[in-house]
Amino acid sequence: MLTSKRKAFLMDALRRDGQLVAKTLCAELAVSEDTIRRDLREMARDGLLVRVHGGALPLSPALGDFAARSLIAPSDKVAIGRAAARLVQPGQVVFIDGGTTSAQVVRHLPADLKATIVTHSPSIAVELVAHPNIEVIMLGGRLFRHSVVGVGAATIEAIGKVRADLYLMGVSSVHPKAGLSTGDFEEACVKRALCHAAAETIVLASPEKLATASPYQIVELGEIGGIVALASTAAALTAPYKKMGITVYPA
């Protein structure tokens, strides 16, 4: 089989099964494991999938920059943001991530809410200017323009000084086995620090992020308490998380 046809077969199998297992593919295609590994390495380099031990997983479509992500399923983000905003209680200290879905969270917070929002996103802080009863604490650091958030040692040090009640986390990917992941190493480090500094972490997950992976793991699923997902999300996509004891909040 020609390399191009073999890679097309692999992409079809990935879309159908949600994962690729190298040993199974070797037998199915009658080629060596080295050949499959080379194919997967080249496909990962071309941005078609994410390699994991023993095979590959679908690559998240939510790895574009801030402007590109704002065009992906905007109505889904509104619904998820509205549902997540209802989880913020008066008097809480809440970490709110950067990103297009997080922007919808703050837009749906009640006008009279009294709470403290801590964020490393200047765009989230600006959204909160119109909320006179919300104290806004901005975390410093180097601006990561791709996601319009602060990253680096200064950001992580500042996070370590806060003990939040809740962290509303935006991610690129959520997967039952690969956990939570994103496309930048430093951003993953910041999200991990936010998760560890909060009493509870709830993930904002539109359908295109479920059952996908990105290059850099944030935390495993055992470290989160809930996921906000569309009520219309296929049961097969949310069932693995419910089985793990993770609350799935419908949006």
Task: Label this structure with key terms.
single chain, 251 residues, alpha/beta, Arc Repressor Mutant, subunit A, Rossmann fold, 2 domains, seven-stranded parallel beta sheet, three-stranded antiparallel beta sheet, 10 helices, 23% strand, elongated
Task: Write up this protein.
It holds the Pfam family HTH_DeoR. This is DeoR/GlpR family DNA-binding transcription regulator. The chain is an alpha/beta fold and 251 residues long. Helices cover 37% and strands 23% of the residues. Strand 14 (226-229), helix 10 and strand 15 form a beta-alpha-beta unit. The protein is elongated. The protein contains ten helices and 15 strands. A seven-stranded parallel beta sheet has the order 6-5-4-9-12-14-15, with helices on both faces. A three-stranded antiparallel beta sheet has the order 1-3-2. The protein has a three-stranded antiparallel beta sheet with strand order 10-11-13. The chain has two domains: 3-58, Orthogonal Bundle (Arc Repressor Mutant, subunit A); 66-250, 3-Layer(aba) Sandwich (Rossmann fold), CATH 3.40.50.1360.
Q: How are the strands of the biggest sheet laid out side by side?
A: 6-5-4-9-12-14-15
- Tell me, what is the CATH class of the largest domain? Alpha Beta
Order of helices and strands: HEHHEEHHEHEHEEEHEEEHEEEHE
- List low-confidence stretches: none
Helix content: 25-40%
Number of helical segments with 4 or more residues: 10
Spatial separation of the terminal alpha carbons: 46 Å
Overall structural class, as computed from helix and strand content, comes to alpha/beta
Number of strands: 15
Estimate the global geometry from the Cα principal axes.
Answer: elongated
CATH architecture name of the largest domain: 3-Layer(aba) Sandwich
Mean pLDDT, all residues? 90
**CATH topology descriptor of the largest domain:** Rossmann fold
Total number of distinct structural domains? 2
> How would a textbook summarize the main sheet?
7 strands, parallel
**Radius of gyration, rounded?**
19 Å
Strand content: 15-25%
GO molecular function, one term: DNA binding
Domain HTH deoR-type: 3-58
Protein name: DeoR/GlpR family DNA-binding transcription regulator
Keywords: DNA-binding, Repressor, Transcription, Transcription regulation
